[in-house]
Amino acid sequence: MEHISVMRDRCVDLLAPSINAHDKSVIIDATLGLGGHSEALLQRFENLTVIGIDRDLQAIAKAELRLASFGERFKSAHSVFDDISGIINNFGFSQINGVLFDLGVSSMQLDQEARGFSYSHDAPLDMRMDQSTGITAGDIVNTFEPGEIVRILRVYGEEKFATRIVENIVKARAIAPLNSTVALATLVKESIPAATRRTGGNPAKRTFQALRIAVNDELGAIERAIPQALARIVVGGRVVVMSFQSLEDRIVKEIFAEASTSKSPRELPIELPEYAAKFKLVFNSSEKPSALEIEENSRAASVRLRAIERVAA
Ligand SMILES: C[S@@+](CC[C@H](N)C(=O)[O-])C[C@H]1O[C@@H](n2cnc3c(N)ncnc32)[C@H](O)[C@@H]1O
Fold it and tell me: Which SUPFAM superfamilies does its entry note (predicted)?
């Protein structure tokens, strides 16, 4: 299935004010994917340069092809987005007008059976967004200490039956390495009490989510990248983030809350400028897509969009 960009026009609208306020603007698309959001931005604003980051070489190659007609206005970087500050420097910019994060994996990645993201297709247990480097999900299940695998399933998958699943992983890997998605999905299903199996979708979903987050250090990358993005935007510039699960959204919410809260000591009767928050939330809480968008693109159902704006240097 082709990847459909989620809340595309809303993201472009949110990034528009700072782009329109400057003769030349730069936006970082921190999760380039197939370049759907970048394309919409480049089409709408003729004065705009977009730097697209992705850790997936295939995504970069496809996006470069799609965006070739924009020439020098589109630049790409193969990297994890937690190097956002270094990438901005490498392209010779000091400040930028906005950053967009459309977190998680693309439909292209999910649909490529051989990459092992999906429990419904048999494939090697890989799950790396960047197949040129790093550990695989197979490395985790076959070599990590049982206690560490339990922690991964509990924290990243919110899996209640983590201990039972890991006991069975340990038994299985003592006989032969667990190398396939379907073998793991079957083991997870058999580790979960029959009554629970009947509710709440495929029981392997939480384990697969947890392993994917661990393999790609997804939460760590977000924690490191958003503060860098905030540090590099101009006054009036915005950071827009779409999260697709609650662990990601919680991190974004906390960083945005901290950045938009005054540091003024309580005992001071007035707020001195040095304590005032340098950022404000563009809207309280998070936004969701319309019912129509969810109907047309089921991937949009779980999205939470948040946006923050720099109000002082
Ligand atoms: C949901 S897709 C983006 C889709 C894109 N906005 C579009 O409209 O075509 C997310 C992309 O971000 C990439 N990605 C996710 N986490 C990343 C990270 N920490 N660093 C760099 N790229 C990342 C994935 O490889 C994937 O291609």
Answer: Putative methyltransferase TM0872, insert domain, S-adenosyl-L-methionine-dependent methyltransferases
